[in-house]
User: Fold this.
Amino acid sequence: MKRQTRWGLFLFITPVLLWLFLLIVLPHIDLLIMSFRTENDSGDMMWSVSNYLNFFHEPIYWLTFVRTAIYSVLVTLLTFIIALPVAFYITKVVAPRFQGFLTLLLLLPFWVSELVRVYGWMILLRESGVFNHFLLKLGILNKPIEMLYNDATMVLGLVYTSMLFMVVPLLSVMESLDNSLIEAAYDLGANMWTILFRIIIPHATPGIVSGSIVVFMLTLGNYLTPNLIGGKNSLWFTEQIYNQFIASFNWNQGAAFGFLLLFLSSIAVWLGLKLTKQSLRKVVQ
Amino acid sequence: MIKKILCTTMFVSIALAFTIGEATAETLALLTWKGYAPKNLVEKFQKETGIEVKATYTNNEEMIAKLRATRGAGFDLAQPSQDRISSVQEKYNIYQPIDLSKVESGQVISSMLEAVKKNTLVKGKPHAVPFCWGTSGLVVNRKFAADVQDYNDLLNEKYAGRISYRLKRPTLIALAFAMGKDPFALYGDAEAYQALMEKVGQAMIEGKRLVKNYWTNGDALLESMRSGEVNVAMAWDGAGWKLNAENQDIDFLAPRSGALGWIDTFALPAKAKNIDAAYKWINFILRPENAAAFTNMEKYGTASNGAIKLTDAAVRGNFERSFPPEAIDNIKWYPPVPAKLEAIEGKILDKVKAAQ
Assistant:
């Protein structure tokens, strides 16, 4: 019996290990080696940390990273502010038979690819687009305005893309919140804000933190949305990596940027966990 | 029993799938630009030879990156521009020499064949044959921007918010020409080239608030010109002529400081599997009637000898309208790009993109 389970375990874990090793670990080792090599003046490759130093010496690189990180934090915060009432409504307010239906409605837009959703937003927001058309017809505007290609619409697009990843963990923690706690608080004369900050948020913290980590990382690593909606003003750090690989043919610099992104975003997540006094183990449960 | 039946059907279906896969195995993996493998020509080719063309659409930079990642595997034929072959080949070795005896050279305009041969010579061997050519210049909506003349109108206050161009090297080169400089003459002198590009980059940063967007996708540019969101753009002649067929106000304009001439080619990736099919496709698409069909659709000129007689009158009209004789003499043909310039340009383009 014992032998059998071991074989079963072996059978099931092999594909996972192969996947991890061949498709994730091995390419990363290759990239790591690449990031420490650089071309000297005569065109030969040699070992060096100059690719990493470039990031700190050249202001446009680290400023882009800072910008990307700040916007990612903002997106995470906005996503949370929108997702919390939605999750609360679905789990606590609406009749149980509609819960499944509403969750499905949230999932539905995510059945089409991100590219299609972003193009959808572009059709709505562009100068000759749907919103402008109606605003002109209604006489609110007398001249169409360009709503794309600025930071506000880019943040809107990013919040929209990452909504689901915040709502789902919040739904599961809210489910376990005992209604009687809220009722008791009302009986004792607490107002809405007290209930929100003393009962709901403390209870939902593990969900909030895990949702925030996912949203933050996804936003930081997003390429499509900032590039398409942000247009001319949206230098996202992922785009720097792309440019190094594709436009400048400098794979070594691109690899170094990739690792810096991984490293710096891990630090950001670690800081977030420390500040909210959460442990990673508790959050991933 | 049921298990047995299930097993047999499964085996049979797997076997079937393999045999069907075998039967249609002959394919040509083509790495090319949008529009270079029109559907009707692909179908005609398959009827003629039984070979199925699987096209992947991309641009010069991504083409090089894709082939570099696999050291020249995964594709049977690529179509880089002629100026982006020799230095890339020297550095990354992603192509193999082309055997000109297998190309029906009578079908190709000989001066173009010679020029491409010379420009793609690496270790004494040619690496490409020409396919089509065209120029980059300005596409202008005359109704709203009547007096556009040169590339520096891309930085002109008058057209604020109605301008679009690519954030790529041709834009840098074009603006340098408009400043009265000759960037091609500085190709050999990296420092002087960098100084010139810094200046161009500075001008682009100052003109950034005037630009609507940096276009990346040809179809998206056509769309924004149709809807009147953009009135002055730097783009390819074929794009301008396509729009002209729909709206007389929009047309391609060869700028005063010269349209930038490019030739796109056929080159064999180093580890191409189906080389025979690649030569068959080259000879097929350069046949005058097929090349003419391509030109009628995409408006670009081809390297095919005699195709011009078979093209529509409108296509010839386009050319005569946009290129009076002095404009033809003024076309600036791209010389081969030396290594290292891409890194200089890449950094300047990054700075322009990051500027507020």
